[in-house]
Amino acid sequence: MIAIHCANCRHSTDVVASLAGCLVRCPKCDGVLRVPKGDEQGEGLESEYLAKEVVENPHREPEVQEYVDRIQQRVELERKQQPYRRPPHPDRLYGPIVITLGVLLMISIVTSDLGPMTMLVRFLFAGAVILFGVVLVVAAR
After folding, report:
1. Which of 13, 53, 66, 118 has a beta carbon 3.0–4.6 Å from 114's, enabling a disulfide?
2. pLDDT in tens, 101-123
3. What is the pTM of this model?
4. DSSP assigned state of 34
């Protein structure tokens, strides 16, 4: 028999040595106690121990078990659902629109009759617009 003492009510009781390492309930206050391992002082019949019952899951009271079951069911449902897909957003359209404007600007420069320096400056500006559009496309991903 192993002597155990309840930390809640200070009640002492003896349990069978085969329950070493198990959780039991205090017969006086229903507190959960862990039977220490070792200190085996002999064996007795299980009916001799004074603790009410061996507790397998002390945190699984009926209310707690119902709550845990509901959470597990909710998790199962969420796993079965489709993953979240972000709806199309206007930010994804800005990049292609800016690229299109840059290309149209390039076409208008080529078809116009401008001086070489003016044409170079406008080509650089159109290239910058296209590059900005590419940055917007990459950033929208």
Report:
1. 118
2. 999 999 999 888 888 899 999 99
3. 0.37
4. E
CA gap 115, 121 in Å, rounded:
10
Q: Which amino acid is at 58?
A: P
Phi, psi for 119 (deg, rounded to 5): -65, -40
Place of tokens 């220490």: 36
Q: Which of 60, 51, 57, 65 is nearest to 20 (CA)?
A: 51
Give pLDDT tens digits for 4-18.
Answer: 888 778 788 888 887
**Residue 108: partners with Cβ closer than 8 Å, 6 or more residues away:** none
* pLDDT over threshold 70, residue 52: no
Q: Which residue has the tokens 């990049």?
A: 95
Q: Which residues pair with 47 in a beta bridge?
A: none
Residue owning tokens 């840059």? 102
119: burial class by Cβ within 10 Å (0-12, 13-18, 19+)?
A: middle
